[in-house]
TrEMBL record:
Encoding gene, per UniProt annotation: IL37
Top-level lineage group: Eukaryota
Lineage: Eukaryota, Metazoa, Chordata, Craniata, Vertebrata
Name assigned to this protein: Interleukin-1
Keyword ATP-binding applies: no
Gene Ontology annotations of biological process type: cellular response to lipopolysaccharide; cytokine-mediated signaling pathway; inflammatory response to antigenic stimulus; positive regulation of gene expression
Amino acid sequence: MRRMGWEKEPGAGLLYASRGKARVLVCGRGEEASDPDPAGSPQEPGPSFPSVDSVQSKSLVKFQEPEKFNIRDGDQKVLVLDCEILKAIPHKAYILPETFFVLASYYHSAPPEKGSPILLAVSKGELCLCCVKAQGKIFPSLQLKKKKLEDLVTEKEQAQRPFVFYKADVGSRSTLESAAHTGWFLCTSCSSGEPVRLTKTVGRKKQVEFHFIKL
């Protein structure tokens, strides 16, 4: 079978479809032609390519590996996971501190003076630290959400925001401020065995500076 071809009449602005000796007028002046033969269409769109920014951001997320840390507060209490609750207890030889998985967050709204935006997870990277304000509550609280860190890091900024902490160095220690709730910091109590919480009050009764011990 002969393929249909295209012929344009010079100077007339007329376009014909031809097959053998037959010619059919497809369009005249000011009209657009549509090719009934997709395989031979000169208007078939080419492949689309992602933008440079999207390629760079995806490659950064794709190839990074989380760093692993143990975390201690200023009183040298270690953070452990007890029934999916983070607690701070005195460090002993028989105590196994929880391993924290940490990834940088490409959180574009992060103010430079706040520190480095990071994401933290425990339980082999499958429970992510999150700051939320429950319905009917006045203050935000720290929660552990069942979400894989590798999935969280690819989410959009708005969805990722409650999980972002600003890590600011204070000498050899660091503070962790919630990105979603400005002025609220991760803290431990001076009492042993208490859950890790959020606080807006920095004082003797609460520790807001932590040692990150790389594994």
